[in-house]
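In the current project phase, the collection of sequences with tokenised folds has grown. A representative record is quoted in full directly below:
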Amino acid sequence: ELFGDEMESGAIEFKIDRNKAMGHTLRIPVNAKIEIGQRRIEIKELLASPTSTVIKGNIKNTVDIRADHKSKDERLTYDDIKLSLMADGKEVQTLGSSIGSSLKGSKFEISYDALPKDTKRIDIKLDSLSVFEDTKETFKLNKGKDNDNINILDREIIINNVYESEGNTYMEITTYEDLVLSNIKLIIDGIDVEPERIIPGEYEKVEEVKTDSSNNVIQRARIKYTRTIEFKGTGENLELEIERVKLNREYGEIIYTYEEK
């Protein structure tokens, strides 16, 4: 079982026939919690109306990332969760979503089409989530554009250029958008140096969104992101230490179920 004992859910007394709401919104407390990838997901509530269904919740970090490198722009660039809403085994079409991030975590809201009439069972499935993973790997760097790409976990980091300017060292990299270098250091002649700042670069769409016959998204657009990381100081021997990353993982697991008896 993917989530083991970390999953919490329970039966809730309510009727999920949206036509009985008489034009009003039914607020359904869910309060399901799971922990995975150094993160805690809390599904707070489900709001069902005759026109739409909304899932609200939050994602909290179970690891303290305040000690990660100073450049919070890189830590907060990407945060994502994808949930599917199932009604009697059939997926309800997603209408849209919003998510707001901070150092403590994120709040999300996902909108779906209205529940079908006389729905008896609701399932919420975790399709994907951005999670933290510890790595603690070190890679030797050369100045200039002659560097091998770095493979970490199952992701590639393209080292476009390593150069010096005005007494500092700069590393330009390209990765898929979902890969965030949460905690890194540049070891310059044996001295650990944390990043000073992230200089944003270009986004490039490399794969388009794919949908099924019902217009449900089956593959999101894949985007590559180029940015430059600045480190204070220069030296002859350079090594990049990657201690922690955040990346998107796919799961496809039911995390909450309600069924009318």
Notes: Helices lie at 72-76. The radius of gyration is 22 Å.
